[in-house]
Amino acid sequence: MAFLNGIKKNLNRAGTTIKQRTGGGDRTMDSEFEEELERFKSLEKKSNKLAKHAKEYIDSTRAIIASQMRLVQVMERLYGETKDPAYQKAVLEPLARFASYFPEINEAIKRRNKKLLDYDAQRSKVRKLIDKPSEDPQRLPRAEQEANLARELYENLNTILINDLPKVVDLRVPYLDPVFEALVKSQLVFSQTGYEKLEGMRNYVPPENGNDRRVDDVLQQMRELTICGNF
Fold first, then answer.
1. Where is the BAR domain (predicted)?
2. Quick check: 119 and 151 in contact, CB under 8 A?
3. What are the backbone dihedrals phi and psi of residue 136, each rounded to the nearest 5 degrees, phi first?
4. Which of 188, 180, 189 is closest to 81 using CA atoms?
5. Which residues have CB under 8 Å from 57's CB, separation 6+?
6. 10-residue block means of pLDDT along the chain (231 residues)?
């Protein structure tokens, strides 16, 4: 029975939405909520994008580190010095936790929107009964009572969201500041480690002038080969 009631509510809400879009139904406008919703949606989009790019950053860092490890031929030792665990704990995990609250908030927004559709549908019923009174004198009072109940349910959720959405948006600064600080520090450690490892290769590279002479000698020997002279 509850399942059928749920289907009926969804059908009624769909009908109310269609009527509103075609100008045939009452529609409640709440500019204050829409403003806070827009700010929250912007935060959600940017936070998810930040989490994605943070993951891409560590993937790119790992690729560069792997190249450095191959260059200096100390793969095991260098890999043990990478900052993956610290980066995971200080950057990726906090971003994931922050973004994990968004689905719950979005569910509350969906519930609010459903209650708004219910309220607008009840308002339309009341207006129609006023414009065209029913033979049953109890229909209008019942409709008004149902409209008042729908309004209370909607306004309760709406008030909660209007109060809490700005708090969620404002919390981004104290929460994300340490994440950005950890990101900058990890970049510094990565750059310093890479420089130290590559600097250590200088002992294996011949002096520049001597290297040039060796290259010239090899090229001269190639030019003197018979096969080269035939082309």
1. 18-214
2. yes
3. -85, 110
4. 189
5. 183
6. 52 57 63 88 87 77 61 42 70 85 91 91 90 88 92 93 90 84 79 71 56 65 59 43
Overall pTM surpassing 0.70 (yes/no): no
Tokens 């998810």, located at residue: 48
CATH class of 85-192: mainly alpha
Report how far residue 27's alpha carbon sits from residue 94's, in angstroms, rounded to the nearest whole number: 40
Residues 6 or more apart whose Cβ sits within 8 Å of residue 205: 211
Phi, psi for residue 64 in degrees, rounded to 5: -65, -40
In sequence order, what are the residues at sequence separation of 6 or more whose Cβ sits closer than 8 angstroms to the Cβ of residue 151?
119, 122
Q: What ranges in the chain are assigned the alpha helix state H? A: 2-21, 31-72, 75-80, 84-87, 93-100, 102-131, 139-170, 172-199, 208-224, 226-229
Both tokens of 133, joined, read 């009174």
Tell me whether residue 117 is exposed, middle or buried, using C-beta atoms within 10 angstroms of its C-beta: 0 to 12, 13 to 18, 19 or more: buried
For the record, the structure tokens of 168 come out as: 């969620």
